[in-house]
Amino acid sequence: MVDQALLSIEDLAVHFPIGGGLFSKPQMLRAVDGVTLSIKPGESLGLVGESGCGKSTLALSVLGLVDATRGRVMLDGKAVGSEADRLEVARTVQMVFQDPYASLNPRQTVRRTLADPLRLHGVTNGGEVADRVAEMLRQVGLRPDQADLYPHEFSGGQRQRIGIARALILKPKLVICDEPVSALDVSIRAQIINLLLELQAEMGLSYLMISHDLGVVEHMSDRVAVMYLGRIVETGGWREIFEQPRHPYTRALIAAIPDPLTRGLAREKARGEIPSPLNPPPGCTFNPRCPHATDHCRSAPPVLSPVEEGHLVSCWRAEEFAKVPA
Amino acid sequence: MKRLALLSGIAIATAGLLAALAPAAEAQTPRRGGVVRMTAPYASSFGNLDPHRSGRSQDGQVHMTIHRTLYIWDSAKGAPALELATAATPSAGGTVWTFKLRDDAFFHNGRKMNADDVVWSFTRLMSPGEGFVGARWIRLVQGAVAVERGEAKEISGIKKLGEHEVEITFTQKVEPGFLFYNMTTSILPREEVEKPTWATAPVGLGPFKFKEHIPGSRLVAERFDRFYKPGLPYLDRVEFPIMAEASARDIAFRNREVDTSILGPVQYVAYNNDANLRKNILEVAEVFTRSMVMNHEVKPFDDKRVRQAINHAINTQIIVERLARNKAYRATSWLPITVPGYDKDMKPYEFNPAKARALLAEAGLPNGFEFEWTTSQNESWGLPIVEAVIPMLAQVGIRVKTKVVEVAVLTDIALKGEFQAYIGSSQTGPDPLQTLRCYHSSTPRTSCNVTQYKNADYDKMLDEAGTTDDPARKLELLKRANAHLFDAAPVWFFNYNKATLAFQPWVHGLQANPTELVHQYPEFIWVDASSPAK
Amino acid sequence: MSASQPLLQVEDLHIALSTDAGSFPAVEGVSFEIARGETVGLVGESGCGKSITALSIMGLLKPPLGLAGGRIRLTGQEIQNLPAAELRSLRGKRIAMIFQEPMTALNPLKPVGRQIAEMFVLHQGASWREAEQKAVEALTQVKVPAPGRRAKDYPHQLSGGMRQRVMIAIALACEPDLLIADEPTTALDVTVQAEIVDLMKELCAARGTAILMISHDLGLVTDICRRVCVMYAGRIVEQQDSEQIFNHPQHPYTQGLVASLPRLGMRAQHGRRKLMEIAGVVPGITAYPGGCRFNPRCSRATEICVKVVPELEALGDGSLVRCHHHG
Amino acid sequence: MKLRANLAIGGGLTLLSLFVGVFGPWLAHTDPIMDANLMNAELPPSGEFWFGTDQQGRDIFSRVMYGAQISLTVGIGSQLINTAIGTTLGVTAGYWGGWWDDFVNGLTNLMLAIPSLIFALAIMAILGPGLTSLMIALGLTNWSYTCRISRAQALAIKSQGYVQAARVLGYGDMRIMFTQILPNTLGPIIVIATLGMGGSILAEAALSFLGLGVRPPSPSWGSMLSDARETITTAPWLSLFPGLAIFLTVLGLNLLGDGLRDVLDPQSRSRR
Amino acid sequence: MLGFVIRRVLQMVPMLAAIALLIFVLFSVIPGSFATGQQDEGLGLDMAVVARMRAELGLDDPLHVRFGAYVKQLATLDLGVSFRSRQPVADMIAARLWPSLKLTIAAMGFAIVIGLPLGFVAALRPGSLVDLGLMVIAVSGLSLPKFWLGILLMYLFALTLGWFPSFGYGQGGLWHLTLPALALGVSPMALLARTTRAAVLDIMNADFVRTARSKGMNEYRVVVWHVLRNALVLVLTTIGLQFGSLLGQGVVVEKLFAWPGVGSLLVDSVFQRDIPAVQGCILVITMFFLVINTSVDIAYKLIDPRIRYT
Known about the structure:
The complex is a heteropentamer of chains A (326), B (534), C (327), D (272) and E (310). Chain A has helices spanning 55-62, 86-92, 110-120, 126-139, 156-168, 186-203, 214-220, 238-243, 248-255, 295-299; strands at residues 7-18, 27-39, 44-48, 70-75, 78-79, 93-96, 174-178, 206-211, 223-228, 231-237, 305-308, 311-313. In chain A, strand 9 and strand 10 form a beta hairpin. Helix content of chain A is 30%, strand content 22%. The longest helix of chain A has 18 residues, at 186-203. In chain A, the strands form 2 sheets. In chain A, strands 6-7-8-3-9-10-12-11 form an 8-stranded mixed β-sheet, sandwiched between helices. A 4-stranded antiparallel β-sheet of chain A has the order 2-1-4-5. By secondary structure, chain A is of the alpha/beta class. Chain C has 327 residues and is α/β, with parallel strands linked by helices. Chain C has a single domain, classed as P-loop containing nucleotide triphosphate hydrolases (Rossmann fold, 3-Layer(aba) Sandwich). Chain C contains 13 helices and 12 strands. In chain C, the strands form 2 sheets. Chain C has an 8-stranded mixed β-sheet with strand order 6-7-8-3-9-10-12-11, with helices on both faces. Chain C has a 4-stranded antiparallel β-sheet with strand order 2-1-4-5, covered by helices on one side. In chain C, helix 4 (112-124) packs across helix 5. By secondary structure, chain E is mostly helical. Chain E has 12 helices and no strands. In chain E, helix 5 (89-124) packs antiparallel against helix 6 (129-142) and helix 5 packs across helix 12 (275-303). The longest helix of chain E has 38 residues, at 219-256. The radius of gyration of chain E is 24 Å and the shape is globular. Classes of the chains: A alpha/beta (326), B alpha+beta (534), C alpha/beta (327), D mainly alpha (272), E mainly alpha (310). The interface between B and E is large, with 60 and 59 residues.
């Protein structure tokens, strides 16, 4: 199974020193703290979590832009990191960003935005570059004659299409989508979600779909991982996660959705607020907010362990929740 | 006696504009008391209150007030006069001099001056490694150089003969007045100099004692009651407000906030055009010659014809009239007007571009040449002059590249000979022999012969003038040497400075000192009751 | 003031945006009512005019935006033209507002207790001492732990959720009749958002305070509000009971919104279906189309939609819709 | 809220100065150096000499026309140096961070701590007066603001999606700095350079006053004004016209800078 | 807090050391020498004597040796002895420091008293004629060469109107201070007015001011309770930077008005190549800047709770 994985992350930890100066010791921010994940070719993995849970850092380490403190990231069988060939990594994994307004260089035309990476990666024939840019624009639903416009001449949805085009121009195998629709107008989101799914089918892409919007994640993912304070607390197929969530945090996330459809799903809301990753609580990091926390939870950190085939949960009381309907 | 002479000196110096006014002024009886505020115009601070250390004109103002030395410059006679010495007797062909000293001169600390003070002061001037500015005047004393080089502790040429008598032996025949009138040879009290406060609180023999110095702002001295000239000084206090900025000084003077102000060319004209202000201007021909110094080691300045051509090419007269606004006298040769040896019949170089071109052609430069002209930004002997000359030289094919430097750098460059030509001002008096020796081939570049002019005939004239005992023959030789320089044109002769000092109508007793107009004799100054200063 | 009289009536409200290029209608003909204790939602995408509608009720519009017509009545009294001083006495006391960004909406240089206390000083003439006491009580009511200590904290020392609680404490300090909440939870994490929403509901219900909830999140609004107004391009296009809006949207825009959302649970129920798309883009204020403003994006649009502005039509069940082809 | 007037007036004055700077030699009636005629010294303004003549009898109008070239050269030249140093250090420091950032920060604080006029005075004393020295002196001493701003900009832009995207696409650091960051920092930097140009022209005047300015044969406005300060009571036109030229040019640049700031850099009005 | 103050003060030390190194290197290559700068006419100076003086003063030692000596000297808080006056440089500067500070404080006081209200008034009516007028005045103040402004002031207020004396120090107290302080204070005043205007505008548009209005405050309370202090925080940096550099900017004004400050000592010393004095002056001027800015940092810490330095 490991050998077929396009992306495999093994016990990845990324720690940053924060603050510190001439006269004080820096604190350690454990942004990612022991994450194991894998994505198969053509598969979509949804990564769910709230602010500060480490999902962005995780994405950066997959892209080779942040070095692992511990563990490793293997992409297509090769290790990723500052040692790796950045160009090769770039041809394997790309990213779609959240904010379509900030993710396009305001002083570059669409053509430059798309053509420069091609040239950088060795496509030097002018005709070929132009053809591929035009083809890519068509694929994301834009007209090739729009290539010479600047980003401000496009609407948010169109910009996100450009952002997708840029991510796909090098024909990568894996695309990380970081909240790809959350900054868009509600009426535009469906366009982009549909486009991403179409492109995945067309190009055989794998997605790492980062989002806090469970609806989007459910819609787009094959498998889902839930992250909390730098760790995966629950992972499994989308159906298991959303129909039989085992971890109280996953359940709280679902309960928090203000949608009449989910109103009957779960009522176990989390209490209080997310602790600082600089100073995580001992034991299970979710214990202060968990309605089910016991003394054991407050002292011993649980391990991610399977509760059924392909469904892993990091909770001392996961078994007790097995039969509780979500 | 002496006072009368000095006062008449003013009358002469300010003749012309002041002619009608002067007798009226003389008729008044000097009033005792009051304050005079004489601006220090040349820099925004006093450099050093130790007279041995500073040769700057600005500092000299203060030194004249607080200190005294063996001689003083007599502006009226145009010669050095005895001051601390009461008699000076030469022997051994003018190389050994015996000085009788005043026995009524007291330092401001109350101690009476004696011969030891003279010996000590002169020895101090030669202290090795100190670089006292006044040392240049003592070097002619036998054994002085050995002390300066650290080879001896005492100057062999200076001997104390009695409590108030000193004998000084020189290495050559000299007129000691020309050396020892300089304030940089002031007689100082050893016990005060050795105190740590010396640098900030000078003590001397002068008519005023130091009271207060606000560095960068002003210095105040007050009357010394035991001054050796009876009845003097008149003033209670002398103040030197420092005002280097001419425009500010002008406003302050017009606003009656200061009593004297040195005038630049611009203000000289402006004040002369003002019916009130023009009545109170003191003028004097100072012993400074302004010139463009050429480096004879650089081609084509080694060629006399080229140098003459330059003198012909420049319309010096119009520059003196228009740019210097007649606040200068056109220079004919090296010696200035008030110095013996100056020939008032000598005609300056004629402005004649055609002749200049001819001379250049003769020198093999029919198309002219280009040179770099180093200059400071001084308004009277710097950049503005160069700017005016550039187009004139261009007329005869001489192209000028200007290089502007600060005065400190200019001097450095001059001493090291790192220039093609520079424009500057040289002190050319009051001793004509000393002045002309500048172009003696034995004079090193570092002590005046910046051009490196060398001529055997000229050397012979000067050598003879230095040894002859016949004053008439000496004068004759000096005149000839000066005329020789005119022809040799080691420099472009530009002008002699005319110093002009505006003073408020209530100020009396100022003197036209040609060695430096701001160096006033404060003991003779008095103010009448209309003075607003208290 | 009769019991049946609505608390707030907004009638035919027009707000104009003045630019160098001329004046544009940012809000046009908006009317709605809120009864005492009622919760009403105003839903729409960014730029549809929902936030400036709220600001105009507060009398806080700033140039280049300005009121261009219509009436705003608070318990029957017209307030849109009140003198500044009288309007001020309503603000905070009878109508209060909380904003999207609790970080920037609080003065960074003042302790939060003090900022709550200002309300009591301003509207109840309390001394600072009393006011600060009351501020601690107010913090207790919004369930801030250790309120005495928190009152002395500065905004930057609090988490986002805590800050929004402080904002709620400020808004409810003088027990206003109406609370306007402009995207109060957008900047917060989902789990925190749920808590804040619950808190708001609870406190307002206890005080009988009506809520005007403004959001782009249809789900959130229906969760809180009894009635929802959907705005599009400066106009209200539909007004419905919350229960109905997801199940029986009337306006094509609302229908599109509901159908285009990937809602949790849908895939489990119906399998993965292609989401319904609303074509085109949201128009900018300066480029509103004529007729029905939704017509360029509407699949049902006909000639009349291009030419004639549809009226807000009352359907039998109390809902309103502005469409030539509704249903 | 927007003082559009400042853009218009500032732009107009600046264009006028630039026009004079470029076409000065054609506008001038006479040569500013060689046409000294002492017979014409200090004539008041007249039909022949529009701005009068100076002490050397040179046409002040012509000198003001030529002076524009010198003064603007000083302004532009020094700002080019400042901008080059400031942006290079600032962008690299902001982008790379780490010890290099600390070092650049220290250097910037150092430069900020020594008042630039003092620093320029020292450099002028070392290099000697002259146009090139002046450009170097003013160019080496005023880059700290540019550096700070471009560092802050680089820091802000670094986290923007498009820079991240460039990194993801495999762009090298240099390429990112040149193609992604630099073009987007230009707005505020142009503002600073515009304001800085005015500052340089004033600094040139101050250094001329202190005796260390640009020197002939080039007639800079600062040196003309400084030379004419004694005649302010007797021949005011000598200082009036170069003074006005400096005032209007610097005023123009300041207004233009303010105006550009409103347009190019609306967020950072209160910084600096 | 105390720890913070101590840390900030200690942080000045490496800065000063770097500045000392910089000016040492700068002035080790300056052309011209103090010996020739000592007299109006340097001729008559014996080069052999100059050489001896150089040797005795250690000027011929290799650079690193001289720097070592310099650092050692500085470490004992000794600024050396002036070449020209033979006084300790520290004494010379001490005599000049108070006049300089007086001028600087007066100028800054003027800038604050006039500039802050000006900026405020302009910001409260943005875009109005008052705003435009005040800002044109402010920008004009920034566009005049200081010495020219000084001469014009002297001409107008001293000579024509006779209200103030044209120069002088220590005789008339405030009377003599007025014109120089004005000449020096105009440009920081203008800068401050502009910064204040921008800051107040920024704050007036801030969300929390909207909150304040939504609370039902009148504009006066909004300004006093919520705008003033926040705007002041934004302006404080400008005040610090301007105040800190004013001592250095003073050279021109000091020279023009014959004001006996550190700046005029510096200029004098540069021209006379009195290197120890030059180095001492620059060190003191930069130290002043650092002290002011450190104080501003500490003031920030006091009024802005967000700031947490480590």
